[in-house]
Design goal:
heterodimer, A: 115 residues, six-stranded mixed β-sheet, four-stranded antiparallel β-sheet, globular, B: 112 residues, mainly beta, seven-stranded mixed β-sheet, 11 strands
Amino acid sequence: AQTVTQSQPEMSVQEAETVTLSCTYDTSESNYYLFWYKQPPSRQMILVIRQEAYKQQNATENRFSVNFQKAAKSFSLKISDSQLGDTAMYFCAFMKLNAGNMLTFGGGTRLMVKP
Amino acid sequence: ETGVTQTPRHLVMGMTNKKSLKCEQHLGHNAMYWYKQSAKKPLELMFVYNFKEQTENNSVPSRFSPECPNSSHLFLHLHTLQPEDSALYLCASSQGINQPQHFGDGTRLSIL
């Protein structure tokens, strides 16, 4: 079974600064996907970024980028130029390929962006 | 417009009541999911439907009964729930396997 660990329950950052959220996972699989989801107070889970394990290049989406270290089973999210709207819960998630689309989520990190 | 719509947004019910949660996706996806989000616990996958067929039941108690009449609609029928079932229930959909899941806003369920 896969496990996903987010070791930072809460973090804060000043507006316009950069913050990195940590995620580690445990799996024996070699092919899988990793995701970061954002859940603002409105409750909707929003996909932030996706990484395929077979790709060595780190995924980037505008101000969001990941540092994927496959050997270390680490998948951190970097948010650059933080904005007030980035305040939310952030969840790291793992999905094994061709296995019923089952997502395994971490416990989440609550990020507060301060003005 | 989120693409995945859940109703009701909030639900309060007694342990002996029977109610249903509804999810509708407007994205043309083939797969739909129910998740449970409890306080201080990671999201838990409950059920997966692919092309209307249930492909996963993650050891969910029988007091939760899913129904998927077509690829766009998913229901979660509730009966004789327990206080520990109070949680946010999230519905999601995806185009198929290995594709990102899109979530609704959830139904906040409180069991009295």
